[in-house]
């Protein structure tokens, strides 16, 4: 076991907890005091935490690292995950509306991953797309404060949509843990 004065076998910024991604005192996902009140606030808190985790997993990497594929034949990369989640946020708005579906951001199936090129312009666009699509979906759902309300053509409940959003981000944050570890050895928390 490494002493605190030695660099651990797995790299970490943590100074007190060498096996953690960040020191607990510096973790922006940790809040002092009790959790949020109510079901809706709790769901939003979990969603916010997973969104922040995804961004943290991408911090400090260049375009090549963000676009680096995991293992052949997979096309998964951190940049691909960012693009995929922007696409998914847009698609969730299609679940809410009775109107025509919004067009895909990146084109045909898997274009979100396939088009994740190691170019800074692609990286910048992906993060702008994600931020915009998250805000648009958040705004659309804010118009439906009753979690039991049924929305869209399929009558999906707002609660189901919120839980599905959390599940999608949580699953992909697990992928992001592994992708980041392959890039520079940093492990999840």
TrEMBL record:
Gene3D superfamilies referenced in this protein's UniProt entry, alphabetically: dinb family like domain (1.20.120.450)
Disordered, as annotated region: 1-41
Pfam family name, one: MST
InterPro entries on file: DinB/YfiT-like, MST-like
Domain of life: Bacteria
Name recorded for this polypeptide: DinB family protein
Originating species: Streptomyces viridosporus T7A
